[in-house]
From TrEMBL:
Top-level lineage group: Bacteria
CDD domains in UniProt: Cse2_I-E
Stored Pfam families: CRISPR_Cse2
Protein name: Type I-E CRISPR-associated protein Cse2/CasB
Organism taxonomic ancestry: Bacteria, Bacillati, Actinomycetota, Actinomycetes, Bifidobacteriales
Species of provenance: Bifidobacterium myosotis
Length: 207
């Protein structure tokens, strides 16, 4: 079991999740309501975030299918599995019933990555009325465990869904890296520093 944060592993987590997200998104946003597989996969992944206990036999293919050799096994580094699972579940929640893709395109990310902090800024751009957003970000930072962080992130994803026409996109590769890194005491604070900077300043740290 890994005890310290690995930037190389974080990058591999982001790449692995991004590949899965875009395969689902490409299928789900097709004409005629998307493919049956994509609809079923998103429903399975939302199950845990909706409060129901996940069935590992049902979601195993969604999580472990095509697991790359470049990633440690879940037994070797459980933080990898938690980050992959949580990010895919959050994407499934964000994408639900949306005919446009909510994961930021690779082309757009090259110009300006929509990190989690920057996406949260778009929920309420007026700083005089953003107390609810900042309160949820502070709750994520104060959470005593990973599940607490995810509950706050989930609440913010729901706010993104409910904002205007629901057009806020998110760089899920970046989020996956953050959710891996936040699980390690030696690197946890860097995640919240980055979210705060992107939220308040609007600049992105290159990763």
């Amino acid at each position: 079991m890994r005890r310290y944060f690995s930037s190389d592993t974080a990058k591999e987590v982001g790449l692995f999740v991004n590949g899965k997200v875009f395969r689902l998104q490409n299928e789900y946003t097709k004409r005629d309501g998307g493919t049956p597989y994509s609809r079923a996969a998103l429903a399975r992944l939302r199950r845990d975030l909706d409060g129901s206990a996940p069935s590992w036999m049902l979601i195993g293919g969604d999580l472990f299918g095509e697991w790359p050799q470049s990633l440690p096994s879940p037994e070797e580094d459980p933080a990898v599995l938690r980050a992959v699972k949580a990010t895919l579940e959050l994407y499934a929640l964000h994408q639900q019933s949306r005919r446009h893709g909510v994961a930021q395109s690779v082309e757009s990310a090259r110009t300006k990555r929509m990190t989690f902090g920057r996406a949260c800024r778009l929920i309420q751009p007026d700083p005089e009325h953003d107390d609810g957003v900042r309160r949820r970000l502070a709750s994520a930072e104060a959470a005593p465990d990973f599940n607490g962080v995810i509950r706050s992130v989930r609440a913010l994803i729901l706010l993104m869904r409910g904002t205007g026409d629901g057009s806020i996109t998110l760089d899920y590769r970046s989020l996956a890296q953050d959710l891996y890194q936040v699980q390690f005491p030696d690197s946890r604070a860097e995640v919240f520093q980055r979210w705060s900077m992107d939220y308040h300043v609007g600049s992105t740290v290159s990763q």
